[in-house]
Design a protein that fits this description.
Length: 313
């Protein structure tokens, strides 16, 4: 006992000062909630109903996997997080969690989530989750993010996989319908994050991250945001066009798509002298509403369809 006390005093066995809240913050809970929601929509939209207990295991596993990705991202990005105002207070740059603790935490959760999903649900969904974690932590965070202004275009695939994972968890397969859900998120990601990058231009510049506004300029970024918004609005309606969703979904997708394009147009027409970036901030906020609204409408459409199908049966 005396040896342990002496070691503590000498600093040979430093005790972590991290709290449960600090570790929770490593999981990026707001991002995790969107991942869980879109995965749930993919699972419910699938034509096979999962046992509720298995479905719960699948959702928890996907949530833990998403959190693991966030922890690994924060571990690797601690150096640039420290110089950006919006991230300087995160657990690692502020010193509340050590890099080694964050790395161990992320790796353990990654293995736990993939193995649980594979063993208790199916190995296709487990493999997709493993690939998603790898893509976000390695391909995007360690390579694309610091190398190319197309980082978020390619890296956006990591955030687009959850509905496909949910679908695979329910069916053990991947379908065109789940690919469409993937495409909606994949194409939505660049205008969403470029709107953020416009009003966080100085932050990314200090960190040396080649986001589109820092490399191609604000005018080019605004044009690309508008172009992507047009594509997103069209792709958002495709599930109805292809017969995967009903008229109710189509109405919501069209209204939200028009709104998305309208906010992108305001960004495109934003005066160069407007340093408040009000239009970009509004676009960023509405983009979150767009994605949530489209997927909520898809969820309701799937539930209503299942209800009427059960009634007919």
């Amino acid at each position: 006992m005396a040896l342990i006390e002496k070691s503590d005093v000498d600093g040979a066995f430093p005790m972590s000062e991290a709290t449960a809240r600090d570790y929770l913050s490593l999981l990026k809970p707001r991002v995790m909630s969107l991942v869980v929601f879109t995965a749930f929509v993919g699972m419910v939209a699938a034509p096979v109903a999962l046992n509720p207990a298995i479905a719960m295991v699948a959702i928890v596993s996907i949530a833990i996997g998403a959190g693991a990705s966030g922890a690994l991202n924060m571990w690797y990005d601690a150096d640039i997080d420290a110089v950006m105002k919006r991230t300087a207070s995160r657990a690692i740059p502020s010193g509340r969690v050590s890099p080694g603790e964050a790395l161990s935490f992320g790796l353990v959760l990654s293995a736990l989530s993939v193995l649980t999903l594979g063993v208790f649900v199916n190995w296709l969904s487990g493999a997709l989750l493993a690939f998603t974690i790898f893509f976000y932590a390695v391909v995007y965070t360690m390579w694309l993010k610091r190398w190319t202004p197309q980082n978020i275009v390619i890296g956006g695939a990591a955030g687009a996989f959850p509905p496909m994972i949910g679908w695979a968890a329910a069916t053990g397969s991947v379908s065109l319908e789940s690919v469409l859900l993937f495409l909606i998120i994949f194409l939505w990601t660049p205008p969403h994050f470029w709107a953020l990058a416009l009003f966080k231009l100085d932050d990314y510049g200090r960190a040396g991250v080649p986001m589109m506004p820092n490399v191609a300029g604000e005018a080019s970024t605004r044009r690309q945001i508008f172009a992507y918004a047009l594509v997103v609005a069209v792709v958002g309606v495709l599930p109805w066009v292809m017969g995967f969703a009903g008229a109710g979904y189509a109405a919501v997708a069209i209204v939200l798509g028009v709104g998305f394009v309208w906010y992108a147009w305001k960004v495109l027409r934003m005066p160069q002298s407007d340093r408040t970036m009000r239009a970009a901030k509004s676009m960023f906020a509405f983009s979150l509403l767009y994605l949530f609204g489209v997927f909520a409408a898809y969820l309701v459409d799937a539930l209503v369809g299942r209800f009427f199908a059960a009634g007919v049966a």
